[in-house]
Structures are given as C-alpha cells and as structure tokens.
Amino acid sequence: MLAGLDPEQREVATALRGPLCVLAGAGTGKTRAITHRIAYGVRAGVLQPGSVLAVTFTNRAAGEMRGRLRQLGAPGVQARTFHSAALRQLQYFWPRAVGGELPRLLERKVQLVAEAAARARVRLDRNELRDVTGELEWAKVTQTVPEDYAAAIAKAGRDAPRDPAEITGIYRGYEQLKRDRGVIDFEDVLLLTVGVLQDRPDIAEQVHRQYQHFVVDEYQDVSPLQQRLLELWLGGRDSLCVVGDASQTIYSFTGATPDHLLDFRTRHPDATVVKLVRDYRSTPQVVHLANGVLAQATGRAAAARLELVAQREAGPEPAFTEYADEPAEAEGTARHIRRLVDAGVPPSSIAVLYRINAQSEVYEQALADRSVPYQLRGAERFFERPEVREAGVKLRGAAVGGKNDAMLDEAGRDGDLAAQVRAVLGWSPQAPAGSGAVRDRWESLAALVRLAEDFARARPGATLRDLVEELGERAAAQHAPTVEGVTLASLHAAKGLEWDAVFLVGLTEGMLPITYAKTPEQIEEERRLLYVGITRARVHLSLSWALSRSPGGRASRRPSRFLTGLRPGSGRGGGAGVVTQGGVERGSAERGTGARRRRRGPVRCRVCGRTLTDAGEIKLMRCEDCPSDMDEGLYERLHDWRAVQARQLGQPAYCVFTDKTLIAIAEATPANEQELSVISGVGKRKLDRYGADVLDLCAGRDPSGEPAEEP
C-alpha cells in the first residue's frame, strides 16, 4: 500500500491518528497521498470504511476519489461534495427533526430572485440578475442575514452589483418567497444541516457515531458556513485530515478563505503538518517560473508559500512573446499550436488560458482558420452567448431596415461601420464598475465592436450587411462539433486540470491583474491566478501579451507586473514572504514543545542568482551549467579522507558526505563552522562529527586522522 510513495506522501499515509494538515503544492500528488492514507488506514484496521467521510468541492473530484479508493480496496468510503453530504443527512433526519418531507430543492434561484426584485420595485436586466443572485449566494455562505448585508460588504471591501439597500430588499423578499412556496436553495442545505445539528444533540450524536474520521480536500476554498458544518460533524473530536494550498486560493469572491487552512495549527496545536513540495507534474523550467511568480507575492498566504522542487526531466524553457496587437497574438498562438499538433501533441493535451471568457473569440477564430479543433470549458462559445446572439439579431434587423433609422444614419454618416455597431448595440466605451455578469456582457459586446473595427479596416467601404454576413460565416465555422480539441478556458475554469502544453495569453496590465482588482488582497489573488495557470503546464509553456488592441493601434499596453523579474529584460524581482519547505512538523504534544521547525528561504544560485529547485543543484548552491570554481586539490583530499572515514566506520562513503556535498565544500572552502554549516548536506550532527577534520582540510592542514566516533 505504501510502495511508490515519496517520504512526505508516506508520512501522510501513515499519520492516522490525531489532526493532520497537508500543505500540498501544485502537482505534488495530494490525491494520491490522501487516498493511500484512507486505504492504508482501512487495511491496517484503524479506519472502518463506512466511518470515513471525505469531502471536496466538485462532483468530478469526488468521483475521482471514489474511483481511486475502489482500486485501492476501500470501496465503502463516502467521498462527496459538502452539499451532497449535507443534503443526504438533511433528507434522512428532516422527518424526525422537523416533520414531514424535506422542502423541494430549488434547482435555479434566478427566477425567484427576479420576482423578489420586481416586488421590491428594482428593475434588473438579465446580467444584473445573475450578479445579484451571486451576491445573495455570497451573503448566505458567509452567514450574513439581510439586515447585516450592507455592513458586511463594507467590512469585506466588496463591490456590490447594485445599491446595497436594494440588494437588502431583494434578499429579504427572496427569503420570504421561498418560505411562502416551501422551497429551499443549495445554500439552505448547508444552513439547515447546521441548524439541525446545533439544535438536536441526539441527531448530532447519531452523525458522530456514523462518521469517525473526516478528510477535506481543497481546504483553502472552505467558506465560513462549510467550516461551521465541518466543526459540527467533528463534534469536538480531532480525527481530521485537511489538504490545501493557500497559494491556490482564487475563489474569494464566492466566500472562500484560506484562513481556516492557515489557522489550522492554532486551532489544533497537536496537529502534524506535512508539506508536499515534490512536483511530479511539471518540468524544472515550468516549476522555476511558478516559484518565481510567488517569490514576489505579499500578504498572509504568501507567508506560507511552498517552494516546489521539480522531479521531472528538463524540458524547454517557457516562451515569453510580445505581439503588436491582439489579432497577431491570437494568430501567433494558433500557429504555435498547429506546429505542436503536427509534431504529434494531441489537441486535447493543449490549452489556451485567459483571464475572462470574452477573450475567447479571437482565439476561436484563429484556431478555426488553421483547422485546429477546439472546445470551450466553463462558458458558451462566443457566438452562442445570450448577449452575442441578441446583438446578432439587432444587427441583422438594422442591416435590413437601417435606412429608416435616423440615429443609425447619423452614426454611419462618415462611413464609420464601428460607430453604427455601437449605436445598434447601445454600447458605451465606459466599462461598468466591478466584475460579474454585467461586466461579462460589456466585454462580449466590446469584442463585437472590436471585430467590427477590424473588419472595417480590412474591408474599407464595408456595410453593416457585409458585417452581418461575416459574423454569420464565423458563427457557422465555429459551430462545428469537436470531439478532440484544444481547450479554451478562463484561468478560474482551469483549476484542477493539467495539459502538456499551456498558452497563457493577454497578460497585460488591466487584464492580469484585472482593472477592477483594487486592494492589495485582490491584486495578490490575481497573482495567484497566474500561478495556477503556470502550474497547469506539464512541458510546454508560453506566456504572451499584445501592446495594442488592434492592428495599427497605439502601443500603450504594458506587460503584467507579475512578469517583472521573470521575463527577459525586465530586471530581477525581489522575493517576499517566507518559503515553506517540504517535510513534516509534529504537533506540540508529540514533540514536547510548541516551537516550530526553523524555516528557510529559497535557495539561490551563488553564481547567477536563480532560484534553485533541483536537489543536486541545491547541494551545490549553483546551477549545474554555471561555472565552477572548485579547488580540485581540496576535493581530492576530501575524497581520500571520506574513504578512510567510511572504511573505519564500516559504512558506504555517501553516509559520510555525498559527492555533491564534497564538491560544494571544495567550491566554498569554508573557513569556520558557520560557513560550513550553511552548505546543504552538512547538518548539525555531521558538523559535530566531521566539522573539525573538514575545516583542517580546507585550511591545508592534515586532520587528526582519528575516525569520528559513532554517537
């Protein structure tokens, strides 16, 4: 059961008693570690399959966990999402706790929110309705009641999609409508389960008898409401394993917070903390760039960042490409993808990732032009989006009857096709404040306006009818069904996935970080989005940006600030925060002291300054290909001395010092214990046993010749 696990994963698998916190970097095999832990516990008789509840955030992740557990011989373990587990319990206990059947679950709350808005005399268009619905969901998962909503968003620094007083009225009316109609929503499932477990100790006791051990994946994404439910499930017990990475917190807008992960040791002083930093997904080149992005991070999550150590063989360096304009960026990306596909990389192993869904259109077109199949994830195809379809209807109508439209005639008096499109769509160049569906709609229409501008530039004298025909041809070409295709997705939708080749596009100021990210916390979440995007790549990674929006435009854009110090010619960025190294920290009760293990910062090459991730390079304190200033004579003396020590101790030579450590000593020629102690491979025990001899050799003196005694 433990075969094939690395030392840290093995620590996870065998830590079966007491609280356990697994800090798992991207690509470090966290699912493998926790599923082997559950299966090992079942095999060892410590865990009963039916008493284990593993919870995660998506049905896909829960299904993957169940599949792995079945393969490992633990098919009876429950692996569910928070909502699925809570709904199951609520359905079972509702007749006993309240009486009758559980109210009907509302699959889509938008219609009820619309009715509540109408009753509150608030007019909402379709996109505003989506944003307000999302705002009510945020309020509920943060356990905010209608009366406290205005104060809560002010405290959180959150931009409301409408006036807070209006949302309060809609929120109050929505809750009343649900009560009147006997329905509940998905957030109510968690709230009601919390209520039942709080108010009925007998039911809580039955749940405690059923579930003895809990595992929570993606713990950095837990909301306050989910954390409260977890605490009630535990009932004061500490048989809990949580897994997460604060550097992958990218859903704070939904109420997720890494605070529960970062505070785990505070709440559970006796917890064992295991850090997984061996990256099995990406090449050293990709890992180095990912580490570099986080090295410049600030804030609480950055203070506990994990420095990944690549385990794969070397691959190509990440490509940084600057383009004159967005169409050129899309065409260059499609051209590169075409080369990869022709070289044998399956299209399904390639992804193009961007900040917002409205960026997809130009890449959809560029890939279609090169006959590269693609598939969109997490969004409709551009021409299938409701606002784009609606715009198409308006443009077709204007193309047919526009001669009788005075406003349209005025807009097109100078032959300005884009002005006509703006007039038809009622689009303003001024972007709406904040994020959400209203902003998404504006971005989609902005993409249509840009397309009209590009079309008019390419075909002077083109009419609105010509543009409508062009849009129809593009839509038809991109509606072709695809089975095997390049993935087009937003950075948020890419979380949890991976590809052989990843293209991160549109990396400019105003897009990443996005314009409406204002506070330091919001800026840092944007940085983490880039980190998530980079760590999706296994081998090939391309990062690109365009200096202007359209051909011939003013080159006023700047590359994302997150690339400073990482892309060629941008200077070297300064590090920040404290790096969390791989390994194990025992709980204070087990260690006999509450003191934590000393943390070290990133190891940098002493020649070129690059952050080192390869274990061999870390020992040498330099890149393998950087010039060596090793004292050859000293190395030979150290080598001969090591042979004598090993022979007299009856141990292999590497048990004294490895070859890499000897090289590092011969390069550094330390003059005292302090200088010797900082060399990787020279710990306190070896410093005490061999330090005097090594320093004598470095100084050109003969050592005592006495073998070090075995302690």
Discrete helix count = 28
Can you summarize the main beta sheet? 7 strands, mixed
Give the percentage of residues in beta strands.
Answer: 5-15%
Strand order of the largest sheet: 3-2-6-7-1-8-19
Shape: globular
Query: Could you tell me how far the N terminus lies from the C terminus, measured between alpha carbons in angstroms?
Result: 34 Å
* Secondary structure category: alpha/beta
What would your notes on this structure say?
The chain is of the alpha/beta class and 711 residues long. Helices cover 46% and strands 12% of the residues. The protein contains 28 helices and 19 strands. Mean pLDDT is 84; it is low at 479-483, 573-580, 589-601 and 707-711.
Entry summary:
The protein is an alpha/beta fold. The model is unreliable at 479-483, 573-580, 589-601 and 707-711 (pLDDT under 50).
Brief descriptors of the model:
19 strands; 7-stranded mixed beta sheet; single chain; disordered C terminus; alpha/beta; 711 residues; 6-stranded parallel beta sheet
Describe the secondary structure blueprint for this structure.
Elements lengths: L6 H8 L5 E5 L5 H14 L8 E5 L2 H13 L6 E4 H16 L6 E2 L4 H10 L6 H16 L7 H8 L7 H18 L1 E2 L1 H14 L1 H10 L2 E4 L7 H11 L5 E5 L14 H4 L1 H4 L4 E5 L1 E2 L4 H12 L9 E2 L2 E2 L8 E7 H17 L7 E5 L5 H10 L4 E4 L8 H16 L4 H6 L5 H9 L11 H22 L5 H15 L7 E5 L8 E6 L15 H15 L2 E12 L30 E2 L2 E3 L2 H4 L23 H6 L11 H18 L9 H10 L4 H5 L6 H15 L13
